[in-house]
Design a protein that fits this description.
The complex is a heterodimer of chains A (439) and B (315). Chain A has 439 residues and is α/β, with parallel strands linked by helices. Chain A has 2 domains: 25-143 and 321-388, Periplasmic binding protein-like II (D-Maltodextrin-Binding Protein, domain 2, 3-Layer(aba) Sandwich); 145-318 and 395-435, D-Maltodextrin-Binding Protein, domain 2. In chain A, 48% of the residues lie in helices and 13% in strands. Chain A has 19 helices and 12 strands. Chain A has helices at 2-22, 36-52, 63-75, 91-96, 104-110, 119-125, 151-154, 157-167, 177-187, 210-222, 242-258, 268-276, 290-295, 333-343, 346-355, 362-365, 377-385, 396-411, 418-435; strands at residues 27-33, 55-61, 83-87, 138-141, 145-150, 190-192, 195-201, 280-286, 304-307, 317-318, 322-326, 387-388. In chain A, the strands form 3 sheets. A 5-stranded mixed β-sheet of chain A has the order 2-1-3-11-4, sandwiched between helices. A 5-stranded mixed β-sheet of chain A has the order 6-7-8-5-9. Chain A is globular. The termini of chain A are far apart. Chain B is mostly helical and 315 residues long. Chain B has one domain (82-314): MetI-like (MetI-like fold, Orthogonal Bundle). Chain B has 14 helices and no strands. Chain B has helices spanning 5-12, 17-20, 26-55, 75-81, 84-116, 122-130, 137-147, 154-163, 179-204, 208-216, 221-249, 253-258, 270-279, 284-314. In chain B, α5 (84-116) packs parallel to α9 (179-204) and α11 (221-249) runs antiparallel to α14 (284-314). The N and C termini of chain B lie far apart (69 Å). The chains are: A alpha/beta (439), B mainly alpha (315). Chain A binds chain B through residues 68, 71-72, 75, 93, 96-98, 205-207, 260-265, 394, 397-398, 401, 405, 408-410, 412-415, 435, and chain B through 59, 62-66, 85, 149-151, 168, 171, 173-174, 176, 256, 259-266, 276, 279-283. Chain A: Keywords: Periplasm, Signal, Transport. Chain A: It is found in: Periplasm. Chain A: Belongs to the bacterial solute-binding protein 1 family. Chain A: Residues 1-25 form the signal peptide.
Chain lengths: 439, 315
């Protein structure tokens, strides 16, 4: 028996060796943003290395520089990245400029079905033109802008009593944007445990995408839309509708009356810092950070609660998240495609969620145990049902920078009115679309 | 005749380079020496400049290699010169340029004048004063954001200590009125030592016998200052103004780190705006026209200034 086992083991090793020698081991580089889920992906990818024999390298760039760095890399035809987990808005440029490999044939050959992924994520992260069955990425990381709050402060009897006295209702996670503002204003400059606290940490960053992602979290629920008719670029009456104006005015009020002093250029890191240092009662940020926040020994666990972006006229959340693409300039496309094939497996997707990544696979999301698998899991499902994304056009960077300028000028620099800001935004975007030959 | 060791050495030595190229004129040899530099200058400066001028008449976008490039005449120039937002960045740049130069010249000259007086610890003070200009602008920008922090920033506490106002009642980099001054203060802090060093060189170049002659003529200190010190340091001061003017016209790193051009766009200097157009929006043709306009502006102003400087030196 012993001899038989030994023979079997030798045969396995021999077969394994043959298999390994059939496919050439490659050094693959995966590029992404430097944040918590990236660390989870490093851990997850060890299984891929063991299974396929390829060596994984990672190039993670901090968020404020991520778009700049990676889009420069793509535009220059750089070979740094074999795989890129690029932002959802890059899909148009990635497809039209030939940066991403079209994956339809590969999906058909390997039996990877887009029906196995949540429709909202396929639409947002994979398709170009939008909604057509032309796939340039596999949904990799579902994400949306959500909220977290100091549950321990919300539960303090004296705080509860003071809130009830002021607003005539119990202090609880807000269900509407109006309630969110009330709570932020309630906590603003309030003394708790001998320290001055503030209402909420929101996004106001000017340089990359911060204030757009933050303000749209208020503007979408009020009714902001990009076009009157999808695909027609008819922005008049949509971008500057009375609802959109009300949403933007609301965000300015939230900024002026519910945020810490000096909060003029803040994005993900600043929001996390403000919350972890006990400055604010609530903070907005991407769901991607929630596992790390929950695990935080000082402000996580019982002290933290989560809620989906509150609705107002409609339920809506700003979309984050990314798909994983094979870079067209890579010399190792076969090995890169093997990574995508491996990553698309339901078992890998399950482990991805367990490690802190947000899977978009329906086998994970539709699992009955999913909503209870983490304190923020059910909110994540709610958010992903109502996500809205920025333009995903090839000229997205130009469109985004215009919105950054107009919103920051109005919200932070106090220049002009919301109506003027959105009217000017239409002028900027019209010029861009005219240059693009779409208007 | 006996062959000496020196003859052996002489025979083994190869003919000199000079003898090999004998027959070439001095002018040709001079051109040979200068040619690599001229070639490099053409390749690195002149060719890109001509290429940029060419691009400025097109709708080229560097991130769209597949798109047709059309010549659109002066459309980019027209757009830039009629764009109100660009004029606002020009105003922001002019404000920054004017006040940094005024403050740096005044403080730099005063410091140089004080340092030039012999006193104990003179060298130590000089070293301490020039420290800021040895730091990286990115580092300076970063740590001043902390100094300006309304809740914990030392700058705000310093102002609070001096004036009694609440430190968190004002935001140097978040307030539209204060942000332009916040970048002026930091640049002045960093680059005043540079102006001081140039002024110090000017002050030390004035021969003592001129002051001695003035003393004999019973000229007052005040008169010596205005009729000897200032005129003789003026060319140095003007040189410092030229250097700081050119540097601050293209200021980028320090301000990006400090304010990112915000709040809104009140500290968005032309170089930051140009970078956004060229490498974030990728409007290459438009950005080329923008760069040419800035180049002509700086080149024109600098030429006028250099002529004035030469006149002052000739006096």
């Amino acid at each position: 028996m012993k001899t038989a086992n030994l023979l079997a083991a030798t045969a396995l090793v021999a077969v394994g060796g043959l298999t390994a020698s059939n496919a050439q081991a490659e050094d693959l580089t995966l590029c992404w943003a430097a944040w918590d889920p990236a660390n989870a992906l490093v851990e997850l990818s060890k299984e891929f290395e063991a299974e396929y024999g390829h060596n994984m390298n990672f190039e993670f760039v901090p968020w404020p520089n991520f778009a700049d760095r990676m889009l420069n890399e793509l535009n220059s035809g750089g070979k740094l990245c074999d795989l890129l987990i690029g932002d959802s808005q890059w899909i148009g440029g990635g497809a039209e400029n030939g940066h991403y490999v079209k994956l339809n044939e590969f999906f058909d050959k390997e039996g990877i079905s887009m029906d196995d992924f949540a429709p909202a994520t396929v639409y947002a992260y994979s398709t170009w033109p939008k909604g057509t069955p032309n796939y340039y990425a596999l949904p990799a990381m579902g994400d949306a802008n959500g909220w977290f709050y100091r549950k321990d402060w919300f539960e303090m009897p004296e705080i509860q009593a003071a809130f009830k006295e002021k607003h005539g209702r119990d202090l609880a996670p807000p269900k509407t944007q109006a309630e969110l503002l009330e709570i932020a204003q309630f906590f603003q400059e309030r003394e708790i445990d001998g320290q001055t606290r503030y209402g909420a940490a929101i996004f106001t960053e000017r340089g990359s995408e911060g204030i757009t992602m933050g303000a749209t979290s208020s503007m979408y629920p009020f009714g902001f839309k990009y076009e009157m008719t999808p695909g027609k670029y008819d922005m008049e009456g949509a971008v500057n509708s009375p609802e959109a104006v009300a949403g933007l005015e609301f965000y300015k009020e939230l900024y002026k009356t519910g945020t810490p002093p000096g909060y003029t250029d803040s994005y993900m890191e600043q929001s996390l810092d403000a919350f972890k240092s006990g400055q604010v009662a609530m903070a907005m940020n991407w769901f991607a950070f929630f596992p790390g926040l929950y695990a935080d020994p000082d402000t996580g666990g019982d002290k933290i609660g989560f809620f989906v972006n509150p609705g107002q006229n409609v339920e809506a959340s700003t979309l984050g998240g990314q798909g994983i693409s094979v870079v067209a300039y890579s010399d190792k496309q076969d090995a890169a495609l093997e990574y995508i094939k491996w990553f698309a497996q339901p078992s890998v997707q399950k482990k991805w969620w367990d490690l802190g990544g947000y899977s978009c696979h329906v086998s994970v999301l539709n699992d009955p145990s999913f909503p209870d698998s983490a304190p923020f899991a059910s909110d994540f499902l709610l958010a992903m049902d109502n996500v809205k994304d920025f333009w995903q056009e090839p000229a997205y960077a130009e469109l985004l920078l215009a919105m950054q300028k107009r919103l920051h000028d109005y919200v932070v620099a106090d220049q002009g009115t919301a109506q003027e800001a959105l009217d000017k935004l239409i002028e900027d975007w019209t010029e861009t679309f005219e240059d693009e030959g779409k208007l | 005749m006996a062959v000496t060791p020196i003859d052996h050495v002489a025979k083994a030595t190869p003919p000199s380079v000079a003898s090999k190229i004998r027959g070439l004129s001095d002018r040709t040899i001079a051109w040979l020496f200068v040619a690599p530099t001229i070639f490099l200058l053409l390749a690195v400066n002149i060719f890109p400049l001509i290429w940029t001028i060419n691009l400025s008449f097109t709708n080229f976008r560097a991130n769209r290699p597949n798109r047709d490039v059309d010549y659109i005449g002066l459309r980019n120039y027209e757009r830039i010169l009629t764009d109100g937002d660009i004029w606002l960045t020009m105003q922001a740049t002019a404000h920054f340029l004017f006040w940094t130069i005024v403050l740096q010249v005044l403080i730099g000259f005063t410091l140089a004048w004080l340092i030039n007086r012999k006193f104990k610890g003179n060298d130590l003070w000089t070293t301490l004063i020039v420290l800021p200009m040895m730091l990286s602008p990115a580092v300076v920008g970063n740590f001043w954001t902390f100094l300006y922090q309304p809740q914990i920033g030392l700058f705000n506490y310093g102002i609070s200590f001096l004036t009694g106002v609440d430190p968190s009642s004002f935001q140097m980099i978040g307030d539209v009125a204060l942000a332009p001054w916040s970048i002026v203060i930091v640049d002045t802090w960093m680059w005043t030592p540079f102006v001081m060093l140039i002024c110090l060189a000017g002050l030390r170049s004035i021969p003592d016998y001129i002051y001695e002659a003035a003393e004999i003529d019973r000229a007052s200190k005040w008169r010596q200052f205005w009729t000897i010190t200032i005129p003789m340091v003026l060319p140095f001061l003007m040189l410092a103004v030229l250097f700081r003017g050119i540097e601050n016209f293209k200021m980028f790193d320090l301000v990006v780190q400090l304010t990112g051009g915000g709040p809104g766009s009140v500290t968005e200097l032309t170089s930051i705006n140009l970078k956004r157009e060229a490498f974030e929006k990728w409007r290459t043709g438009y950005a080329s026209a923008y760069a040419i306009i800035l180049f002509v502006t700086v080149f024109g102003l600098a030429s006028i200034y250099v002529k004035a400087l030469n006149k002052v030196k000739e006096r």
